[in-house]
Amino acid sequence: MSSRTVIRGGLVITASDEIHADVLIEDGRVAALAASGTPAAGALSAERVIDASGKYVIPGGVDGHTHMEMPFGGTYAADTFETGTRAAAWGGTTTVVDFAVQSVGHSLREGLDAWHAKAEGNCAVDYGFHMIVSDVNQDTLKEMDLLVEEGVTSFKQFMAYPGVFYSDDGQILRAMQRAAENGGLIMMHAENGIAIDVLVEQALARGETDPRYHGEVRKALLEAEATHRAIRLAQVAGAPLYVVHVSAQEAVAELTRARDEGLNVFGETCPQYLFLSTDNLAEPDFEGAKYVCSTPLRPREHQAALWRGLRTNDLQVVSTDHCPFCFSGQKELGRGDFSKIPNGMPGVEHRMDLLHQAVVDGHISRRRWIEIACATPARMFGLYPRKGTIAPGADADIVVYDPHAEQVVSAETHHMNVDYSAYEGKRITGRVETVLSRGEAVLTDREYTGRKGHGVYTPRSTCQYLS
Ligand code: URP
Ligand code: ZN
Ligand code: ZN
Ligand code: ZN
């Protein structure tokens, strides 16, 4: 039996257009758009009508960077796929691409199977996987080809965290050469981890143990240096490159230079770098630990370069790098030694809202909001046009967004499984009202109507953003 819904009277915003239109959804997909008030719109009929007058109708968010249940520093990220994707739905994100982890000495397949087992049957919204490659060798290089064929088309490597996820330049070059052949996209954590470890050791020897020293040893120049090196290695390999969680203005400059040379080099930043700073890392009584992530928060001056990069398309994507650790019992593992604070911050629930606030504040336009949060991540990671837009044939992953509602972010009201909010007390104009995932209401007028197991694994094609 076919099920039809019409969303009437809203302003439909995509990366390319803003039109007052009614949207017909049939069997989980967008079937038609018709200009509101016209006979064509009047002819759209359905069992269910959602009134979106005065609201925005936008594509569901695509968060291309999450870490549900990620093992790190002797503990695990606090959100499971169940709690984390439910929080994503509350925040208007209808697709997450999470990072499966290869542990050293094991195969990519084992890591991927383990992540499928964690996610399957548990997700509220659709999900895909990137693969973290921690151990480049002849076997893993061959496995990369197989993963690309089955829809895991991007691979994260780390120039940081020696002894854990770290790859040296030779391993990185080999993986990039493979990606150049099989169409995979290398995603790079660009920080010079070897140099950082020296500075960590020296800081701790001086008795500098507070969270703020995490920001001081992980220097902007060491992010820029690694970004430069990754770009040149990718150029030598003839492979595209996507640099994750860019926070330093010097790193943005490296991306800008490479893009001006015409290279297929892309950059992602995250809300924490746009809205928070080293001031937060310096909060007293160990509160700064809440803001420990890598790359680290930077002095406020860096934010202007990030906003500029988002406007000039030197940065293309805003993802969350959602990797929550509770203050109590998890962040506290690093009391007396900042290097033992698990790295990562919660954020999957608030990306769409924080970026709407950026529209209100005049940093970006409405269409750019949808481009960096929905359309480009979908294209970058091979999910477009099924995800990331509202067009006939696309999955009906749609958010009815109230641009005038006022909200205050708080751990008391958020839905992530973590005991603090990095944005506690922040006022935001705009709020997610109703969320459809493949036509099914997962949030209805701010009441949760979703279910565990609705979200399905979504294999991806190769990058659709190459020039
Ligand atoms: O601090 C962070 N970003 N934790 C998650 C792992 C990573 O490097 O993305
Ligand atoms: Zn094994
Ligand atoms: Zn990283
Ligand atoms: Zn990450």
Automatic annotation (TrEMBL):
This is Phenylhydantoinase. It comes from the Bacteria. NCBIfam families: D-hydantoinase. Residues 56-439 form the Amidohydrolase-related domain. Its cofactor is Zn(2+). Signal peptide: none annotated. The keyword Metal-binding applies. Keywords: Hydrolase, Metal-binding. Belongs to the metallo-dependent hydrolases superfamily. Hydantoinase/dihydropyrimidinase family.
